[in-house]
Amino acid sequence: MMLLRKLLFEDSVTTMDESPQRSVQGLGSLPFYVGGTQLLGLACVVITGVWMGSYHGGYAWDGSGQEFNVHPLCMVLGLVFLYGDAILVYRVFRNESKRNVKILHAVLHLLALIIGIVGIVAVFDFHNNTKTHHLYSLHGWCGMLTFLLFCVQWLMGLGFFLFPGTLMAVRSWYLPLHVFFGLSMLAMSLATCLLGISEKLFFSIQNTYSEFVPEGILGNVLGLLLIAFGILVGYIVTREDFRRPPHPEEEPLSVHFKTLTEGGASPSSP
């Protein structure tokens, strides 16, 4: 909810160079959209926790089914909710320095990465303990591909945008790819979650799933909420009037970049 509170405060000090129409029709609705993502994301995490806790025995770290339960909770928390919030920081913290926003963006991705690693270790440990083959299903393949691409994306973003020494022309070239693959991997994470929900329901309640049992309904609701979360995050990020505006302290850097590149445009914010 920190994102929502920040937006409600900053929306009251919208910069004067924005047109009234844009302020009222565009930024005025942004806090509600961001608040919607937070409610949906938290609901997904809570429902996942309740599902694994109430229907499958809770959580442990002993190689049992309770350790497997750590896996879906970590993946929804890390590679969906925190990942989505990391994508949104450029829309929420509009009046903070760009470097601080970059650091927050990287830190949230790092937290998502750490939590994702815990989730992957949990499922591999469970498979080892139960003598189950690894990565045999489409869910496993998509999940591992998504996680590996996530790691590459995080490392490349760290190298291109946070560490000094990277040529501005290279940053300008890579930025659209970074934004595109960031959203693509969120979609891949969501698709993998949906595959995992179907797989878990199939293994758990195969014979009664068609009878609308409570666990089946809970899993289906979770899937719909995940889809809604992804759609809302994608809408916020791709809507042009929600884009972070240029700031005065960033203009000298832009002018310097244009001079170096003989009139080329500086990289815009994600």
What portion of residues is helical? over 70%
Structural class: mainly alpha
Shape: globular
Largest sheet: none
| Low-pLDDT windows of residues | 13-20, 251-267
Strand content: under 5%
The count of DSSP E runs of length 2 or more, i.e. the number of strands, is 0
Order of helices and strands: HHHHHHHHHH
Give me the Rg, rounded. 21 Å
The residue-averaged pLDDT reads: 87
Tell me the number of helical segments per DSSP (H or I, 4 or more residues long). 10
Alpha carbon gap, first and last residue: 22 Å
Can you offer a commentary on this structure?
This protein has 270 residues and is mainly alpha-helical. It contains ten helices and no strands. Helix 3 packs antiparallel against helix 5 and helix 5 (70-92) runs parallel beside helix 9. The longest helix has 38 residues, at 168-205. The protein is globular and about 60 Å long. The two termini are 22 Å apart. 27% of the residues are buried. Mean pLDDT is 87; it is low at 13-20 and 251-267. Its cofactor is heme b. It catalyses: Fe(3+)(out) + L-ascorbate(in) = monodehydro-L-ascorbate radical(in) + Fe(2+)(out) + H(+); monodehydro-L-ascorbate radical(out) + L-ascorbate(in) = monodehydro-L-ascorbate radical(in) + L-ascorbate(out). The chain crosses the membrane at residues 30-50, 70-91, 103-124, 144-163, 175-197, 217-237. It comes from Umbra pygmaea (Eastern mudminnow). InterPro entries: CYB561/CYBRD1-like, Cyt_b561/ferric_Rdtase_TM.
